[in-house]
Design brief:
single chain, 2 domains, Spore Coat Polysaccharide Biosynthesis Protein SpsA, Chain A, 12 strands, globular
């Protein structure tokens, strides 16, 4: 069963041009993401790795760090579009592809490992994505955060088999009798981590679909899948929430990432 990890790495970000080449702790963001992908691959069989970019500067850097790079169009609307365009230039026998975010250098290696292992155990899975069960203290912080930025943080509700029922920028579910439930460590809320693995035929279908009604309202592309009857399997990560969601979206985030790296190495 052939699987590929593809890292979409766009140079021409409006808010942060050249973001994948930015140094964090003396190491480029792209090289950090490549390293975590390689750590995951060490524990998996039959997995290939490639970077997908629209810019020669990133391609040159990929060559320097010894990773395959696929040149893609500068017209790709999303990371998923770029992953599919790269996939079309790779082995046609690839059955499952994981798009590893090029701007999330602290993504835990546990995430791609668990996602790929789950698919290898059940090739009927269409899409897979990670979630984290929030402790009450983490839920309290999310609530505080939403008072300032209501559309930060995405929650997920799922069925008894772990298939996603819905994703929202609201905190789901509403909780009655919360005081009594706080006697346990974990809340009933799951926060979504924006990382996706697709069966290749499903990725192709997803990219071809028009934006969904609820996708537009919530600003969540995964709702396009649910709105079109495509199932999303979740897997739970047993990691620190702060690290799992530490993406780099602006130059200001680099300073935060540097401090995080210092605390990890302390």
């Amino acid at each position: 069963m052939k699987t590929s990890i593809i890292i979409p790495a766009r140079y021409g970000s409006t808010r942060f041009p050249g973001k994948p080449l930015t140094l964090i702790g003396g190491q480029s963001m792209l090289s950090r993401v490549v390293s975590l992908a390689q750590k995951a691959m060490d524990k998996l069989d039959n997995v290939t790795l490639a970077v997908a970019t629209e810019d020669q500067r990133i391609a040159d850097h990929a060559a320097e760090i010894g990773v395959q790079c696929i040149m893609t169009s500068d017209k790709c609307a999303t990371g998923s579009d770029r992953v599919l365009e790269a996939l079309d230039q790779l082995d046609s026998d690839i059955e499952f592809v994981l798009g590893l975010q090029g701007d999330a250098p602290f993504t835990p290696a546990e995430a791609p490992i668990k996602m790929i292992e789950a698919f290898q155990a059940n090739p009927e899975i269409e899409v897979i994505t990670p979630v984290i069960n929030l402790r009450w203290s983490e839920l309290d912080k999310l609530r505080e955060q939403k008072q300032i930025t209501p559309f930060s943080g995405t929650t997920c509700v799922k069925d008894t088999n772990g298939k996603a029922l819905w994703f929202s920028k609201n905190i789901l579910p509403a909780i009655r009798k919360e005081e009594k439930m706080r006697e346990t460590e974990f809340s009933p809320v799951f926060q979504h981590i924006g990382l996706y693995g697709y069966r290749t035929d499903i990725l192709r279908k997803f990219v071809s679909l028009p934006q969904g009604h609820y996708e537009k309202l919530e600003g969540l592309e995964q709702l396009r899948l649910l709105e079109n009857g495509i199932s999303i399997q979740t897997i739970e990560l047993d990691v620190h929430l702060g690290l799992a969601q530490a993406g780099i979206d602006s130059p200001e985030d680099v300073e935060r990432a540097e401090k995080m790296l210092e605390s990890m190495n302390a």
